[in-house]
Amino acid sequence: MSVQERILEIKQKLRLNMNGVASTGMREAGIGYKLNFGIRIPELKQIASETGKDAELAAALWKEDVRECRILAALVYPEEQFMPDMADLWIEQIEFPDLAEMCSMYLFSRMQGAAEAAFRWIASDNAMARYCGFLTLAHLLRGGREMGPRYVQELKDQATAAINGTDIMCSQAARTVLDRLETENG
Q: Taking the model in full, what pTM does it have?
């Protein structure tokens, strides 16, 4: 089966699971994707598990510019094949926090070089990159990733700056990282 045929099959599953109330609620909350089926994450995880890991399919799903297709892309991209330069490209195309959260949790924090990329992102001028960076670092810490004293201090400095900044998303993500750091370092 070709990638395009697989995408059509996935879109049929998406239509079957469509939740118009959730989609409308997201749109009213300012989450205005080009197309949004309003499908909850557990259902998307089920579709992803049926689909299996596939880098070519994930890349094609990402290009669909549909909320659920992009979340599925993060779920089905093999982590060992996903690299920070690809994450940089994806971050440039992320418009809404829910997608940043899914990508950070299920893909960015699991790729090779995740910590280095995340530190680069939190120092960026791009608010979505900073948000993804803090979220990725929070997931790495939650997963038991240890950081040397120099990195811990840099993280604290960047998080403090974000908390005192005007970007609410980054501020909240930075607080999450600091909470996680305190939990890990007792």
A: 0.89
